[in-house]
Amino acid sequence: xRLCSQRLRLCATVALASAALIGSLRSNTxxxxxxxxxxxxxxxxxxxxxxxxxxxxxxxxxxxxxxxRDEQIKTxxxxxxxxxxxxxxxxxxxxxxVVAFGIAHPVLGQQIVAVCTAPPGAKLDKDLVIAKCREVxxxxxxxxxxxxxxxLPRTPNGKMDRPAIARDFIETYQTQSAAQ
Length: 180
Hints:
Elements: E1 2-3, E2 9-13, H1 14-17, E3 32-34, E4 47-57, E5 63-68, E6 73-75, E7 78-80, H2 82-91, E8 98-105, E9 109-116, H3 126-136, E10 145-148, H4 162-179
Parallel strand pairs: 9-10
Antiparallel strand pairs: 1-2, 2-4, 3-4, 4-5, 6-7, 8-9
């Protein structure tokens, strides 16, 4: 494990970490990147796994783990897992697919957005999604915004592309806000 950048990002060489990763090198290109090479006179072809973990080493070489650059939503003083929101929405049988994420909010810190597809053979009823969420979720976990999409983009390994979905929403939201 080593410090990979001045922004406190940690990485491990592929030899140490690849056993823990599932999938091919091709499908994990965002994680497999060249290892940092402080001595530029030496050629280095070693890859490292950039985990998203944050930390630092003290002068004695001890590693201090600070946390992760993660997808947690910080709202109303709570940390909310987007997958918990998604799993709860799925359990209501009111959507086909869903991705939840947080966007900036001046009072709450972040507000929860759920981008959904309609259930197979039906229409998406946004009010019903919210009503069902209110029945089973604490208030701070209920999405503030429900957005319908015909389909949700996926990464090369088949997972829903949460960052792309969030970027698309933010760009659309900002465009609509500017027009009003």
